[in-house]
Amino acid sequence: MKLESGYLLKSNSNSKIMKKSALQQARAAYRPQLPIVLTGGVKVVEGQPTQSVADQEEIKKLFPNTYGLPELHFEKESNDAKMEPINVGVILSGGQAPGGHNVISGLFDGIKNINKQSRLYGFLMGPGGLVDHRYMELTSDIIDEYRNTGGFDIIGSGRTKLETKEQFDKGLEILRELNIKALVIIGGDDSNTNAAILAEYYKEIGAGVQVIGVPKTIDGDLKNDVIETSFGFDTATKVYSEVIGNIQRDCNSAKKYWHFIKLMGRSASHIALECALQCQPNICIISEEVEAKNMTLDEVVDYIADAVVARAAQGNNYGVVLIPEGLIEFIPAVKALISELNDLLAAKADEFGAIEPEAQREWVIGQLSEENAKTYKSLPAGVARQLTLDRDPHGNVQVSLIETEKLLSEMVGKRLEALAAEGKYKGKYATMHHFFGYEGRCADPSNFDANYCYGLGYTAANLIAAGVTGYMSSLRNLTFAPVNWIAGGIPITMMMNMERRHGEMKPVIQKALVQLDGAPFLKFAKQRDEWKYNTCYTYPGPIQYFGPTEVCDQPSLTLVYEQKRRKY
Asked: Is 497 exposed, middle or buried (0-12, 13-18, 19+ CB in 10 A)?
């Protein structure tokens, strides 16, 4: 067993001597519910062959061994024959999401159900642990410490991208040394894209290693017709909604601040939309709508300022504004600018880095097209600077570093000053700023996520038993009780398209954006004008783990409206 220095002590030894809270002790006793189909013998049923969501010919050429696979679902089998023991590896990849420990718990229990001699190995600190041969065996005493808990601290996570032959071959060395026949990668769209690439390579060379993905991201943008939601979204949005509700209560009590709240969601506004449905704030900006309407930054500012003016006329100099983390990228003019900046800085990173910081702005302006240079010059210096900071691993702007909430509140303030000078505004405008992100990523999973994640892990074990590779674990029918969920597997290539990354076209899982004709957005749009001018706040409160089903076991409102169901 190879361990990162101090990791075993940090992960396990301390957990045995630390005092557990009453809630920790109670949650340890919770037993997640499995779909009835997984509670005995399982039969695999194949559906029709699939194709990618777009760019079919390009994706097929890149994945000749794993393209066109059929969807799978499981049915009960009277014969519960046991199989030979199997060694499985597991990786937590990317940012944390509530329920990751339950995925691993479900995977562990699932492979032990296959054969009690099966073994599970966790690679430490993400995909880099596979490449660097850092791992630990996950035994029952370790697993039992982490059931129904938040975080990814059982083995840690990381953002190393698995994308080169050298990495694949290096990982294969340790997989063969440990006799691991299947690898489960728990991650978001990019991590599961890497899983698909790895599955294709191992299939091509006959490595004898299956690769299975599990859909994880609190952003909610890893979903489609066959993956109803990513795990962690339910818990994270409930955590954020509790805090937004608390702020709204304070807002309605003090009656003197406008709270600008930025919420995680770089590529889509699912979190902001769900929290708006839960809390009914005065304003919630939906990035996808801004883009569809070709709105400028000034138009977004005017929309917010209109609410401030109207509420002030009623004597209400307070309110709450929800802002998606990635809003700035959806403003068409800024989006075009960022796209050119990404390509420019990918091609000329060394040249840009060699320039003195105070001269970088003028250098950028000189490199851009006329229209994008005009947009860049119009931005406040701080925001313009943030657009040229270090890129993320995919070559994109790190939008979480852009303080959009402060930018908007300051621009609204200037707009109000102009209106006041014209005699059109007589209120008081004071602001508070918040960014809710990390607060929701490691919360103890809600009952929904505890059940969902455990089921995803158990389903992954059954996909391994079925001998398939290049699949993502899937549970559907999620607005019904867990016993009625439909378990199976979805070919990862089915979700892929081609996108520009680091200046080149790459195969990636297509992100799911808020659909402006979808039921959740339409429900929001129908009510938002009333929320904008009046005080209609609701207060969801903290996640409830114990109590009546209507309080404890409801899925997100996004799922409810998408599935057109209200209760189990």
From this structure: middle
Give me the DSSP letters along 134-185: -EEE--HHHHHHHTT--SSTTT--B-----SHHHHHHHHHHHHHTTEEEEEE
d(CA 61, CA 494): 14
Could you confirm whether 529 is annotated as catalytic?
Answer: no
Angle between helix 447-465 and 100-114 (nearest 10): 40
Burial of 60 (0-12, 13-18, 19+ CB in 10 A): middle
> Model-level pTM?
0.92
**DSSP code string of 328-396:** HHHSHHHHHHHHHHHHHHHHSHHHHHTS-HHHHHHHHHHHS-HHHHHHHHHS-HHHHHHTTS---TTS-
User: 84: buried, middle or exposed (CB in 10 Å: 19+, 13-18, 0-12)?
Assistant: exposed
CB-based contacts of 57, cutoff 8 Å, min separation 6? none
Least confident of 159-173, 236-250, 394-408, 550-564: 394-408
Question: What residue has token string 């630990």?
Answer: 136
Contact (CB, 8 A) for 337 and 368: yes
44 - beta bridge partners? 74
Q: Name the β-bridge partners of 72.
A: 46, 489
Which pLDDT score is estimated for 13? 40
Q: Are strands 41-49 and 70-77 parallel, antiparallel or unpaired?
A: antiparallel
As a whole number of angstroms, the longest Cα–Cα distance in the chain is: 81
Which residue in the list 153, 219, 234, 444 is annotated as catalytic?
219
Distance CA 409, CA 50 (A): 47
C-beta of residue 28 within 8 angstroms of C-beta of residue 147: yes
